[in-house]
Protein backbone atom coordinates (compact mmCIF):
# COMPACT_ATOMS: atom_id res chain seq x y z
CA UNK A 1 0.00 0.00 0.00
CA UNK A 2 1.30 3.44 -0.90
CA UNK A 3 1.88 5.45 2.30
CA UNK A 4 -0.22 8.58 2.73
CA UNK A 5 1.18 11.45 4.74
CA UNK A 6 -0.07 14.93 5.52
CA UNK A 7 2.17 17.95 5.01
CA UNK A 8 0.84 21.30 6.16
CA UNK A 9 -2.71 20.08 5.62
CA UNK A 10 -2.09 18.52 2.19
CA UNK A 11 -2.39 14.74 1.76
CA UNK A 12 0.43 13.17 -0.23
CA UNK A 13 1.02 9.67 -1.57
CA UNK A 14 4.66 8.70 -1.17
CA UNK A 15 5.75 5.65 -3.14
CA UNK A 16 8.61 3.13 -3.16
CA UNK A 17 10.26 4.54 -0.06
CA UNK A 18 12.66 1.61 0.32
CA UNK A 19 13.88 1.82 -3.27
CA UNK A 20 17.64 2.36 -3.50
CA UNK A 21 18.24 5.25 -5.89
CA UNK A 22 21.94 5.95 -5.36
CA UNK A 23 23.50 2.51 -5.55
CA UNK A 24 27.03 3.60 -4.70
CA UNK A 25 25.93 4.63 -1.21
CA UNK A 26 22.65 2.76 -0.78
CA UNK A 27 20.76 6.06 -0.50
CA UNK A 28 17.04 5.37 -0.71
CA UNK A 29 14.03 7.30 -1.91
CA UNK A 30 12.97 7.79 1.72
CA UNK A 31 16.32 9.45 2.34
CA UNK A 32 15.81 11.67 -0.72
CA UNK A 33 12.49 12.83 0.72
CA UNK A 34 14.01 13.31 4.16
CA UNK A 35 16.79 15.39 2.66
CA UNK A 36 14.39 17.70 0.87
CA UNK A 37 12.26 18.06 4.01
CA UNK A 38 15.26 19.04 6.14
CA UNK A 39 16.68 21.42 3.49
CA UNK A 40 13.30 22.98 2.69
CA UNK A 41 13.73 26.17 4.72
CA UNK A 42 16.85 27.07 2.71
CA UNK A 43 15.72 25.58 -0.61
CA UNK A 44 12.20 26.98 -0.94
CA UNK A 45 13.17 30.68 -1.28
CA UNK A 46 15.34 29.74 -4.27
CA UNK A 47 12.42 27.92 -5.91
CA UNK A 48 9.60 30.27 -5.03
CA UNK A 49 8.02 32.14 -7.97
CA UNK A 50 10.39 30.57 -10.50
CA UNK A 51 8.95 28.13 -13.08
CA UNK A 52 10.62 24.81 -12.42
CA UNK A 53 12.08 22.36 -14.89
CA UNK A 54 12.56 18.87 -13.49
CA UNK A 55 15.29 16.43 -14.35
CA UNK A 56 13.63 13.17 -13.40
CA UNK A 57 15.46 9.93 -12.66
CA UNK A 58 12.82 7.60 -11.18
CA UNK A 59 15.11 4.55 -11.24
CA UNK A 60 18.15 6.40 -9.94
CA UNK A 61 21.01 8.14 -11.74
CA UNK A 62 21.95 4.88 -13.50
CA UNK A 63 18.52 4.62 -15.12
CA UNK A 64 16.56 6.76 -17.54
CA UNK A 65 16.82 10.52 -17.08
CA UNK A 66 14.56 13.04 -18.76
CA UNK A 67 13.74 16.73 -18.49
CA UNK A 68 10.14 17.69 -17.82
CA UNK A 69 8.86 21.23 -18.11
CA UNK A 70 5.13 20.77 -18.57
CA UNK A 71 2.79 20.11 -15.66
CA UNK A 72 2.80 16.30 -15.28
CA UNK A 73 -0.40 14.23 -15.34
CA UNK A 74 -1.89 13.71 -11.91
CA UNK A 75 -0.62 17.00 -10.49
CA UNK A 76 -2.77 17.93 -7.47
CA UNK A 77 -5.08 20.86 -8.06
CA UNK A 78 -3.51 22.76 -5.14
CA UNK A 79 -0.10 22.91 -6.86
CA UNK A 80 0.40 26.35 -8.34
CA UNK A 81 1.51 26.77 -11.94
CA UNK A 82 2.60 29.59 -14.23
CA UNK A 83 2.17 30.20 -17.93
CA UNK A 84 5.54 30.43 -19.69
CA UNK A 85 5.88 31.75 -23.23
CA UNK A 86 8.62 30.03 -25.23
CA UNK A 87 9.81 30.18 -28.81
CA UNK A 88 7.88 26.99 -29.60
CA UNK A 89 4.67 28.04 -27.86
CA UNK A 90 3.16 28.57 -24.44
CA UNK A 91 3.41 26.01 -21.65
CA UNK A 92 2.42 25.76 -18.03
CA UNK A 93 5.09 24.93 -15.47
CA UNK A 94 5.12 24.12 -11.79
CA UNK A 95 5.81 26.74 -9.12
CA UNK A 96 7.22 25.15 -5.96
CA UNK A 97 5.84 27.64 -3.45
CA UNK A 98 5.59 25.61 -0.26
CA UNK A 99 6.61 22.45 1.56
CA UNK A 100 3.72 20.26 0.33
CA UNK A 101 4.57 21.07 -3.30
CA UNK A 102 8.26 20.43 -2.64
CA UNK A 103 7.55 17.01 -1.15
CA UNK A 104 5.11 16.12 -3.94
CA UNK A 105 7.76 17.04 -6.53
CA UNK A 106 10.53 15.26 -4.64
CA UNK A 107 8.42 12.08 -4.68
CA UNK A 108 8.76 12.15 -8.47
CA UNK A 109 12.56 11.90 -7.93
CA UNK A 110 13.80 15.12 -9.38
CA UNK A 111 16.56 17.61 -9.72
CA UNK A 112 15.21 21.14 -9.64
CA UNK A 113 16.29 23.64 -12.31
CA UNK A 114 15.17 27.27 -12.37
CA UNK A 115 15.68 30.35 -14.54
CA UNK A 116 17.28 33.60 -13.40
CA UNK A 117 13.89 35.38 -13.54
CA UNK A 118 10.57 35.12 -11.72
CA UNK A 119 7.20 34.17 -13.13
CA UNK A 120 5.77 37.66 -12.60
CA UNK A 121 8.61 39.24 -14.61
CA UNK A 122 9.57 36.78 -17.36
CA UNK A 123 12.83 37.58 -19.08
CA UNK A 124 13.88 40.13 -16.43
CA UNK A 125 16.77 38.56 -14.58
CA UNK A 126 17.26 39.31 -10.88
CA UNK A 127 20.49 37.34 -10.71
CA UNK A 128 23.49 36.52 -12.84
CA UNK A 129 25.07 33.08 -12.98
CA UNK A 130 28.43 31.91 -14.27
CA UNK A 131 28.77 28.14 -14.60
CA UNK A 132 32.40 27.03 -14.31
CA UNK A 133 32.61 23.61 -15.94
CA UNK A 134 36.06 21.93 -15.90
CA UNK A 135 36.98 19.68 -18.80
CA UNK A 136 38.80 16.51 -17.70
CA UNK A 137 41.39 16.00 -16.42
CA UNK A 138 40.70 19.44 -14.90
CA UNK A 139 38.40 19.37 -11.89
CA UNK A 140 36.93 21.66 -9.29
CA UNK A 141 40.42 22.76 -8.22
CA UNK A 142 40.90 24.51 -11.56
CA UNK A 143 37.34 25.84 -11.31
CA UNK A 144 38.31 27.42 -7.98
CA UNK A 145 41.20 29.25 -9.61
CA UNK A 146 38.89 30.65 -12.29
CA UNK A 147 36.26 31.49 -9.66
CA UNK A 148 38.67 33.53 -7.58
CA UNK A 149 39.71 35.57 -10.64
CA UNK A 150 36.07 36.17 -11.56
CA UNK A 151 35.27 37.16 -7.98
CA UNK A 152 37.82 39.96 -8.19
CA UNK A 153 36.60 41.00 -11.62
CA UNK A 154 33.00 41.16 -10.43
CA UNK A 155 34.10 43.11 -7.35
CA UNK A 156 35.59 45.73 -9.70
CA UNK A 157 32.04 46.31 -10.98
CA UNK A 158 30.64 46.58 -7.47
CA UNK A 159 29.37 43.02 -7.07
CA UNK A 160 29.90 40.62 -4.18
CA UNK A 161 29.30 37.20 -5.76
CA UNK A 162 28.20 34.09 -3.91
CA UNK A 163 29.49 30.67 -4.90
CA UNK A 164 28.08 27.16 -4.82
CA UNK A 165 29.11 23.78 -6.09
CA UNK A 166 27.31 22.58 -9.18
CA UNK A 167 26.81 19.22 -7.46
CA UNK A 168 28.63 17.69 -10.40
CA UNK A 169 32.23 18.76 -11.03
CA UNK A 170 32.22 22.54 -11.17
CA UNK A 171 31.12 25.76 -9.49
CA UNK A 172 28.41 28.37 -9.98
CA UNK A 173 28.96 32.06 -9.23
CA UNK A 174 25.79 34.00 -8.44
CA UNK A 175 25.20 37.74 -8.23
CA UNK A 176 21.97 39.53 -7.22
CA UNK A 177 20.84 42.14 -9.75
CA UNK A 178 18.29 44.85 -10.06
CA UNK A 179 15.94 43.29 -12.62
CA UNK A 180 17.25 43.71 -16.13
CA UNK A 181 16.68 42.04 -19.51
CA UNK A 182 18.15 38.55 -19.65
CA UNK A 183 19.76 39.35 -23.00
CA UNK A 184 21.74 42.17 -21.37
CA UNK A 185 22.87 39.90 -18.56
CA UNK A 186 23.98 37.29 -21.09
CA UNK A 187 26.01 39.89 -22.96
CA UNK A 188 27.69 41.08 -19.76
CA UNK A 189 28.38 37.51 -18.64
CA UNK A 190 29.94 36.74 -22.02
CA UNK A 191 32.17 39.78 -21.64
CA UNK A 192 33.35 38.44 -18.28
CA UNK A 193 34.03 35.01 -19.78
CA UNK A 194 36.05 36.50 -22.63
CA UNK A 195 38.07 38.62 -20.20
CA UNK A 196 38.74 35.58 -18.03
CA UNK A 197 40.04 33.67 -21.05
CA UNK A 198 42.32 36.55 -22.00
CA UNK A 199 43.67 36.84 -18.47
CA UNK A 200 44.02 33.08 -17.91
CA UNK A 201 44.52 31.57 -21.38
CA UNK A 202 46.04 28.35 -20.05
CA UNK A 203 43.04 27.81 -17.77
CA UNK A 204 39.82 29.30 -19.16
CA UNK A 205 37.80 28.94 -22.34
CA UNK A 206 34.61 30.84 -23.11
CA UNK A 207 33.45 28.87 -26.13
CA UNK A 208 31.45 25.66 -25.83
CA UNK A 209 33.38 23.86 -28.60
CA UNK A 210 34.22 20.44 -27.15
CA UNK A 211 37.68 20.26 -28.69
CA UNK A 212 38.72 23.42 -26.79
CA UNK A 213 37.58 22.26 -23.35
CA UNK A 214 39.90 19.43 -22.20
CA UNK A 215 42.12 20.59 -19.31
CA UNK A 216 40.37 23.96 -19.17
CA UNK A 217 37.45 25.53 -17.33
CA UNK A 218 34.55 26.47 -19.59
CA UNK A 219 32.91 29.65 -18.30
CA UNK A 220 29.34 29.08 -19.44
CA UNK A 221 27.64 32.46 -19.65
CA UNK A 222 24.68 31.16 -21.69
CA UNK A 223 22.64 30.08 -18.66
CA UNK A 224 21.64 33.72 -18.25
CA UNK A 225 19.50 33.48 -21.40
CA UNK A 226 15.80 33.70 -20.62
CA UNK A 227 15.16 30.21 -22.02
CA UNK A 228 17.89 28.55 -19.93
CA UNK A 229 17.83 27.13 -16.41
CA UNK A 230 20.46 26.27 -13.82
CA UNK A 231 20.52 23.69 -11.04
CA UNK A 232 18.68 25.30 -8.14
CA UNK A 233 20.65 25.80 -4.92
CA UNK A 234 20.30 22.77 -2.62
CA UNK A 235 18.95 20.45 -5.30
CA UNK A 236 20.18 16.87 -5.30
CA UNK A 237 21.93 15.86 -8.51
CA UNK A 238 21.60 12.71 -10.61
CA UNK A 239 25.15 11.57 -9.94
CA UNK A 240 26.48 8.22 -8.64
CA UNK A 241 26.20 9.56 -5.07
CA UNK A 242 23.60 12.00 -3.64
CA UNK A 243 25.64 15.13 -4.24
CA UNK A 244 24.05 18.54 -3.76
CA UNK A 245 24.47 21.86 -5.54
CA UNK A 246 25.42 23.56 -2.29
CA UNK A 247 26.77 26.98 -1.33
CA UNK A 248 30.31 27.18 -0.03
CA UNK A 249 32.42 29.94 1.47
CA UNK A 250 35.11 31.78 -0.44
CA UNK A 251 37.57 30.55 2.19
CA UNK A 252 36.66 26.98 1.21
CA UNK A 253 37.24 27.84 -2.44
CA UNK A 254 40.67 29.31 -1.67
CA UNK A 255 41.56 26.33 0.52
CA UNK A 256 40.57 23.90 -2.22
CA UNK A 257 42.93 25.68 -4.59
CA UNK A 258 45.77 25.93 -2.06
CA UNK A 259 45.57 22.23 -1.16
CA UNK A 260 44.77 21.08 -4.71
CA UNK A 261 42.18 18.82 -3.10
CA UNK A 262 38.69 18.60 -4.67
CA UNK A 263 37.15 16.30 -2.06
CA UNK A 264 36.03 18.94 0.50
CA UNK A 265 33.91 20.57 -2.21
CA UNK A 266 32.01 17.36 -2.95
CA UNK A 267 29.00 17.92 -0.72
CA UNK A 268 26.42 15.19 -0.22
CA UNK A 269 22.93 15.18 1.23
CA UNK A 270 24.02 14.26 4.80
CA UNK A 271 26.46 17.21 4.81
CA UNK A 272 23.84 19.89 4.27
CA UNK A 273 21.96 20.04 7.59
CA UNK A 274 25.18 20.54 9.62
CA UNK A 275 26.30 23.23 7.17
CA UNK A 276 22.97 25.02 7.46
CA UNK A 277 23.29 24.88 11.26
CA UNK A 278 26.78 26.36 11.02
CA UNK A 279 26.40 28.93 8.25
CA UNK A 280 22.71 29.40 7.57
CA UNK A 281 22.03 29.97 3.88
CA UNK A 282 25.26 31.32 2.40
CA UNK A 283 23.20 32.49 -0.56
CA UNK A 284 20.96 34.73 1.55
CA UNK A 285 22.56 37.86 -0.01
CA UNK A 286 20.73 36.97 -3.23
CA UNK A 287 17.50 38.02 -1.51
CA UNK A 288 18.82 41.24 0.05
CA UNK A 289 17.64 44.29 -1.93
CA UNK A 290 20.63 46.22 -0.61
CA UNK A 291 22.96 43.71 -2.27
CA UNK A 292 21.32 43.94 -5.70
CA UNK A 293 23.27 46.17 -8.05
CA UNK A 294 22.46 47.47 -11.52
CA UNK A 295 24.17 45.78 -14.41
CA UNK A 296 27.04 47.98 -15.64
CA UNK A 297 25.69 50.27 -18.33
CA UNK A 298 22.03 49.52 -17.49
CA UNK A 299 19.62 52.32 -16.69
CA UNK A 300 18.95 52.79 -13.01
From TrEMBL:
Keywords: Ligase. Residues 28-261 form the DNA ligase D polymerase domain. CDD domains: MtLigD_Pol_like. GO terms for molecular function: ligase activity. The keyword Ribonucleoprotein does not apply. It holds the Pfam family LigD_Prim-Pol. NCBIfam families: ligD_pol (TIGR02778). This is ATP-dependent DNA ligase.
